[in-house]
Amino acid sequence: MSILTLTGSPSQRSRSSALLRHAAQRLRALGLGVSELGLRDIPAEELIEGHYSGAAAGALRARVGAADAVLISTPVYKASFAGGLKAVLDLLDEKALAGKVVLPIATGGSPAHLLALEYGLKPVLSALGARHILAGVYATDKQVRVDDDGAIHIDDDVRARLDDAVDRLSEQVLARTIVVNEAYDLGRLALAGGFSV
């Protein structure tokens, strides 16, 4: 089982990146493996020019392809999700998110930008094949703070919503893993002649 976090902010100190790090820590505490990938991991030239055949784009597609779940975070600018994240998503295959559990996370200046998740990001995720998109977690800039030393402070309400979303994601991933393993075991039993299908 593999879980990938994908941040659409170029800054490690951004609020959206902080929420993603908190989610990853919670998943690890639940005993799940998490790998991280961010906007900074893909050369700017490849992003700007859309180098689909570039090495970084190929590595991105391989990591997304291997993941059972993807957590995607973005800051909201001008009532839309970050353009850098869109450039990353444009490097993926058409159905890259098919069969995956997806959790969108966003931060913005005011509650009015909450709809950027519903009307901006979720349609793009659906276009990439995502059919199991969990309810997103949105926080305003006032609800998340990152200190100079990197310490993350999240309002209790946001923390509770994020933790609940992460718990739902882990339950979905674990349930899918059990179903796949049971189907694999039944298939092996049938091939071994244990019963006829």
Give the N-terminus to C-terminus distance in angstroms.
28 Å
Mean pLDDT: 89
The proportion of residues forming helix, as a percent range, comes to 40-55%
CATH superfamily name?
Answer: Flavodoxin domain
Q: Number of folding domains?
A: 1
Give the overall shape, derived from the CA principal axes.
globular
Could you please say which CATH topology applies here?
Answer: Rossmann fold
In the predicted model, the low-confidence regions spanning at least 5 consecutive residues are none
Q: If you compute it from the alpha carbons, what radius of gyration comes out, rounded to the nearest whole angstrom?
A: 18 Å
Structural class: alpha/beta
How many β-strands, per DSSP?
9
CATH class: Alpha Beta
Give me the number of helical elements: 6
Which keywords apply here?
7-stranded mixed beta sheet, 197 residues, Rossmann fold, alpha/beta, 6 helices, single chain, two-stranded antiparallel ribbon
